[in-house]
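pipeline stage [seq->struct] | target=RWP-RK domain-containing protein | organism=Setaria viridis | residues=344
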Amino acid sequence: MDMDAAVSTLTALSIFASTVEHAAFRSVHGYRVIGRKDGKWVRWERWVERQFVLSLSVPPCREVAVPAASPRILMAGWRGRPVFREGQTVGTWRCIVAFDSVAAVKPSSPPPPVLSPLVNPQLECLPNLYKDLQKVFQFQKVEKVPRRVLRDAKEQPIHSGEQEKTSDEADSSGSDSDGDTQSDKELAPSVQKQPRANRKHIDSITLVEIAQYFHLPIREASKTLKIGVSILKRKCRKYGIPRWPHRKIKSLDSLIQDLEYVLEDDPEEDGQQELLQMEEEKQAAAIKALTKRKKMLESEKETLQQKPALDLMTETKQFRDDVFKRRYRAKSAAIDMEMEMETE
């Protein structure tokens, strides 16, 4: 394709819940795109509509194709820039989250539990939705106090003055309690130990159950399976899985998403017909090559989920490196362009 790699920035996100069908959701994403074509800087807006099945139960969340025959939230003959608000209804869809940086629309409250990765970790297997939600709400994981800090605190030396004071306090407390050790137990902080997993429950976990959570980080998967991380690692080694495949699957999802970005991008719909106009034969050949690449990546992802011990194909690694280099060059060039515009 004549168009170099472009950099896209989220400018709008609206999520709609179906008022008819349970667990059916649709999202409308707006992006500002900056790219370079034939040595010239160009920018445009790209709008995408997607449909998902989201649930807090065991069946994983998944993205489904938007039916071509059903009414869409983004109308084909839409004029101008669409702006959505929370509570707005479009057909059988009701807006539950609305964000638009251009129109100054912000979400009025935190997202529903089904759209929060802290409550619904299955969202991480939907990179098209999860990444944009992350940008809007800035989800932060709860960080625990490192064990090293606790160990250093325990090993911290006590000065002589403090030691004498501590011994005096100990003596006085001992005289008040008259040798009763129960008071020391009451003063000691209660430590809640995490209950250990039942041996029968651990033995009952099969490879098929574990494979359902390959798309999650290993800690999230262990919490969902209600076992410890060490136990999950031992189970994986028992089934011949030397390394948790979350990173490889996430890498393939990212590459598939990049290809979908190119395939879904319609210059005529964005009103930039002259911007990305090319010969029909070249366009058909490019689309055919991208479609073939997408099918190969999806097939490799399915194989990896069935055989997680396999490594990524050499061709896929080379393609991933090329995508990273293109993205880095485009991002650097976009920053330079923004700086030039600001100076002008």
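stage status: PASS
auto-comment: The CA atoms of residues 95 and 280 lie 39 Å apart. The two ends are 31 Å apart (CA to CA).
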